[in-house]
């Protein structure tokens, strides 16, 4: 079971802080890979971090799960958060 689903079963609908990552994948022409999300919009591959996983590992795992691509080198661009 995914960590956030386990956590949700304990806390119900209370707000959660869930770290995750998005990855900008560039090809040799520096074009950005976008994926068609289930609601018909487009977005970057990524997702939530699991227990005993670094954000870098989460980024690599999510890109592989969503695209089949294996990522070697990652570069931190920024950290974003809400209020």
Written account of the structure:
This protein is an alpha+beta fold and 83 residues long. The chain has one domain: Nucleoside Triphosphate Pyrophosphohydrolase, CATH 3.90.79. The protein is 27% helix and 12% strand. The chain has two helices and four strands, in the order αββββα. The chain has helices at residues 3-11, 55-67, and strands spanning 20-22, 35-36, 42-43, 46-48. The strands form two sheets. A two-stranded antiparallel sheet has the order 1-4. It has a two-stranded antiparallel sheet with strand order 2-3. Strand 2 (35-36) and strand 3 form a beta hairpin. The longest helix is centred in the last third of the chain and has 13 residues, at 55-67. It is globular. The N and C termini lie far apart (29 Å). The mean pLDDT is 92.
User: How many runs of DSSP E, i.e. beta strands?
Assistant: 4
Number of domains: 1
* N-to-C order of helices and strands: HEEEEH
Number of helices: 2
Class derived from helix and strand content: alpha+beta
- What is the name of the CATH topology? Nucleoside Triphosphate Pyrophosphohydrolase
As laid out across the biggest beta sheet, the strand order is 1-4
The proportion of residues in beta strands is: 5-15%
Backbone CA Rg = 14 Å
Principal-axes shape call: globular
Give me the CATH architecture, please. Alpha-Beta Complex
**Mean pLDDT score:** 92
What's the oligomerization state? single chain
What distance separates the N and C termini? 29 Å
Largest sheet: 2 strands, antiparallel
Top-tier CATH class:
Alpha Beta
């Amino acid at each position: 079971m995914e960590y956030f689903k386990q956590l949700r079963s304990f806390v119900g609908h209370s707000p959660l802080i869930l770290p995750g990552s998005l990855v900008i994948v560039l090809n040799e022409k520096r074009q950005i890979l976008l994926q068609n999300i289930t609601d018909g919009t487009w977005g970057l591959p990524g997702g939530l971090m699991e227990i005993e996983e670094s954000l870098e590992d989460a980024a690599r795992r999510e890109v592989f799960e969503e695209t089949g691509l294996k990522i070697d080198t990652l570069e931190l661009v920024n950290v974003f958060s809400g209020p």
